[in-house]
Amino acid sequence: MSDELTTEIETWLSSNWDPDLTVAEWWERLGEAHWAVPTWPEDSFGRDLSRGDAGIVGQAITDAGALGPPGGIGVMLAGPTIVAHGTDEQKARYLRPIVTGQESWCQLFSEPEAGSDLAGMRTSAVRDGDVFMVNGQKVWTSGGHFADLGMLMARTDVDVPKHKGISWFALNMAQPGIDVRPLREMTGRALFNEVFITDATVGEDALVGGLNNGWAVGNTTLMVERSSLGAGGGGNATSSAIAGTVAGHLDKRAGDFVSGGRRGSGTAGVLGGGAGKLILTLAKRNGPLVDTPTQRMIRQDIVRLHEMQEIARFSNLRQKAARAAGVKLTGGEPNIAKLSMTRITRLAAELGLALQGPAGMLWGDPNCDPVAAELFLFAPAVSIYGGTDEVQRNIIGERVLGLPTEPRSDKDVPFSELKFSATRS
Q: What is the pLDDT of residue 248?
């Protein structure tokens, strides 16, 4: 299969890649040919490939010097959620603009006082005729500053327990009443945002999964996120061009976004499965590891990092094979993948500094690798976003191992009757 797949994608690229196309034109070719997101179902612009085979496709795109497919929250989260829960009309409306990069998405889930307890969200969507009026605040919204659409979880019924009165919407971000404010990180970047929503509107046709069924739909989004974060696979082509109408990249020349080798910036490639490659590059660049106790430990940790990534990769292949064979999974695989991602990232971050010595702490110094330095600062975030490591362990313990759940006094209480802290209005 791999040889045939390699031949097929290489043949297609030789006939279709043209650096003088606009980004929009190239992504349309890629998406319409079902190469942009090949892991998706065939009837949803994909090819139903495994992650391993998708890696072959991505590597072929990279080797051909072509611009990689659109990335971001739309491909990673919104698309799979709509594939699972959307109507035929919603799939027709939203999936094609995702795979062709015409629309960019963000995730409007967490709130200032509803993070780990996501079901405690206060953002409301109140029906007003044919639309819902949305009011509230979201935070930690990745890519919100260039998103065309947002995956919005909002409360649509306050008279039922908190998990039962939530709905999942596709919210138009380019409308009055939506204020996106960047949050600067210690890396110097502003990948996250807080979003204030005041009397924004969303139509019933943008309600995915049914009214008040948002908790089930949102859990699909979160499971996909955790699986994606813990994918452990490398080699996929990633694009330095940003999808959607806001960033302004669609009308630019596709070849201008190709700089050779792997594309992307900062920690993106490392978190996408390239931690081992980064560490090996640093190890080779900084000379041989002579036989001292410290360097023996570094060699052992490099091997341990490789082992962890291979285990993550094979775990994904096993899940794919189990689904294809109709074998029931435990349900905890995405949570385990997320925990694995935390361990891999932390180890890679520590090795990145160890291999550079004192120069690794001198951000901006010519001898300091900027990706490794940023990875070290960014590493703590991995144990928080996508659901904290503590939440993942709770889910595994309760839902997979059958351990007793933590005491909850709010399980059957209508949301309107819950008691909140004095800071909540």
A: 96
Band of the pLDDT at 216, cuts 50, 70, 90?
very high
Q: Going by DSSP bridges, is the β-strand pair 207-208/178-183 parallel, antiparallel, or unpaired?
A: unpaired
Would you say 38 and 57 are in contact if contact means Cβ atoms under 8 Å apart? Answer: yes
Domain 267-387 is of which CATH architecture? Up-down Bundle (1.20)
Mean pLDDT calculated for residue range 38-65: 92
Answer whether 0.90 is exceeded by the pTM: no
Q: Which residues pair with 193 in a beta bridge?
A: 182
Question: 403: closest CA among 394, 411, 415, 412?
Answer: 394
Token pair 């948002």 is at which residue? 214
Query: Which two three-digit tokens encode residue 255?
Result: 């070849």
Structure-block tokens of residue 235: 């080699």
Q: Which of 123, 121, 150, 144 is nearest to 135 (CA)?
A: 123
User: Which residue ranges make up each domain of the chain?
Assistant: 2-99, 105-213, 267-387
CA–centroid distance for 57 within its chain:
19
Of the spans 47-61, 72-86, 271-285, which averages the highest pLDDT? 72-86
Tell me the CB-side half-sphere exposure of residue 217, using CA atoms within 13 A: 29
